[in-house]
Amino acid sequence: QVHLEESGGGSVQAGGSLRLSCATSEYTSGWTFGGACIGWFRQAPGQQLEWLSSINSVRYISYADSVKGRFTISQDTAKNTLHLQLNILKPEDTAMYYCAAYLGCGSATLRSRYDYTYWGQGTQVTVSS
Q1: How far apart are CA 8 and CA 39, in angstroms?
Q2: Alpha-carbon distance 82 to 23, whole Å?
Q3: CA–CA dist 92, 103 (Å, integer)
């Protein structure tokens, strides 16, 4: 069983920044982010879940065009935590943000919600104009 927990959301003005975190308290001995694909998604009210970024087990990172150049994934291996840095935020970035994990994905880049097994509860980001 893998438990994911997001944090770091909040309310900011347009142009501001936030750093989201995805932490795990794994119950399976030896599991770390290092062996998994981790993805970030968001869902705005009335909208579908949108893939934002992912990192695979060979540490290859991909970004959606909508956030490329503004959002950045980083990993704190010692704390088994993944971060998503959100810069130059826009009102249309307002959404609930989720991290998700799939174990043993190898070098694949997973962009679909159906590719991921474990999900956090989400953290809210609100950007005002």
Answers
A1: 16
A2: 6
A3: 31
Residues 100, 52: Cα–Cα separation, whole Å:
11
- Residue closest to 41 by CA, chosen among 110, 129, 103: 110
**E strand or H helix at 95, and its extent?**
strand 95-103
Return the ∠ at Cα 123 (arms to 62 and 117), rounded to 5°. Answer: 55
The three-class DSSP label of residue 93 is helix
Q: How far is CA 57 from the centre of its chain?
A: 15
Cα–Cα distance measured from residue 97 to residue 62, given in angstroms and rounded to the nearest whole number: 17
Q: How far apart are CA 89 and CA 11, in angstroms?
A: 11
pLDDT along the chain (129 residues), means of 10: 90 98 66 76 96 90 96 84 95 97 85 94 97
Tokens of 90: 């826009």
